[in-house]
Amino acid sequence: MGKVTLIATAAMGIESIVAKEVRDLGYECTVENGKITFVADEQAICRSNLWLRTADRIKLKVGEFKATTFDELFEKTKALNWGDIIPENAEFPVIGKSVKSKLFSVSDCQSIVKKAVVDSLKKHYRKTSGWFEENGPLFRIEVALLKDVVTLTIDCSGVGLHKRGYRAGQGEAPLKETLAATLVKLTNWTPDKPFVDPFCGSGTIPIEAALIGQNIAPGFNRDFVSEEWDWIGKKKWDEARQEVEDLAKYNQPLDISGFDIDHRMIQIAKDNSDEAGFGDIINFKQMQVKDFTTTKEYGVIVGNPPYGERLGEKKAVEEMYRSMGEVLRTYDTWSVYMLTSHPEFEQLYGKPATKKRKLFNGFIRTDYYQYWGKRPPRNQ
């Protein structure tokens, strides 16, 4: 294959963070709404799946063109080199989406693309008749139309990248691992500083902080659909996994704590932390935020507290925000970062944020309120 064009998909508002991760891997990229595109070698499929903490998935871009008729969609799809990518025995379902395009029927677009790919593969493999058995590795094709521009991709990840493989259990509103990693990356935390999540739930934010702190690739503990693709080959995956092992800093000491009011969540958080390999490293404890106390300095607090969106919860949540502000404002060397959809968070907390950033937690529009603590004195 040689060079491939890859797309890392991203949640709205965090494209720049995903782009920085792609560049840190050594790939130049372009940024659009919801996607980061980069051209690289085949090994980039392995490395980007293993290393990208904030991307949703990695897709291989097969082609892009304008189409306003089904004929055009068929012919232009058929003209692409599907046989270079998809083996004769592959399973290749087609999924689709269409936004603001003349070809708006997704099911019609899917079946036309499927037929075009079959025709292209028949020619490539010199098959005169019959269907493909489709009992081999999976190549899931997506046809995406946006304003009459068709993008054809193949999914390289399989299960979404937020599924790290450490979640033994979860609460009723778990934070996506990719968003948790984003929250940590948007702070000024470094692995030598204390880190606290006072609303840790099933432990996602502290675990993602520990992975970042020890430079452990988020995909180290899971499989990817493209590991079955012959043209990438086992050797490239082995090399990429060896790099993950070589760059991990397992000996980096960390001071990470997670607190939650619910003792059952603390047990789930401990189980998840064990599964991720941080059993002895992260300290989980049942505690309310108003009871937080510390003698340490220059730490970072990151939280995804309850938002009070449900009827009957609002008053209790507002009271909790007030008491949280009273406690946390006293630690002026600590930086505090809170994600919530509550529009009056700053008033309740008792202080305007240094900075805030719009983020989406699933479909909920939230703000990430950032309160920067004093900087440590420079060593004379």
Describe the model.
- It is a single chain.
- The chain has 380 residues and is of the alpha/beta class.
- 30% of the residues lie in helices and 22% in strands.
- It has ten helices and 14 strands.
- It starts with a strand and ends in a 9-residue tail after the last strand.
Whole-angstrom Rg: 24 Å
Strand order of the largest sheet: 2-3-1-4-7-6-5
In quaternary terms, these chains amount to single chain
Number of strands: 14
Number of helices: 10
Portion in helices: 25-40%
- Poorly predicted ranges: none
**Biggest sheet, in brief?**
7 strands, mixed
Q: Shape, please?
A: elongated
The SSE order reads EHEEHEHEHEEHEHHEHEEHEHEE
Distance between the termini: 55 Å
Approximate strand percentage: 15-25%
Whole-number mean pLDDT: 95
Structural class of the secondary structure composition? alpha/beta
Task: Compose a concise summary of this entry.
The chain is an alpha/beta fold. It has 10 helices and 14 strands. Helix 4 links the parallel strand 5 and strand 6.
Key descriptive features of the protein:
single chain, 380 residues, alpha/beta, 7-stranded mixed beta sheet, 10 helices, elongated
In terms of topology, how is this protein built?
Elements: E1 4-9, H1 15-24, E2 30-32, E3 35-40, H2 43-51, E4 57-66, H3 70-78, E5 94-99, H4 106-124, E6 141-146, E7 149-155, H5 177-185, E8 195-197, H6 204-213, H7 234-247, E9 256-260, H8 263-276, E10 282-286, E11 300-303, H9 314-328, E12 335-340, H10 345-349, E13 355-361, E14 364-371
Parallel strand pairs: 5-6, 8-9, 8-11, 9-10, 11-12
Antiparallel strand pairs: 1-3, 1-4, 2-3, 4-7, 6-7, 12-14, 13-14
Helix pairs in contact: 2-7, 3-4, 5-6
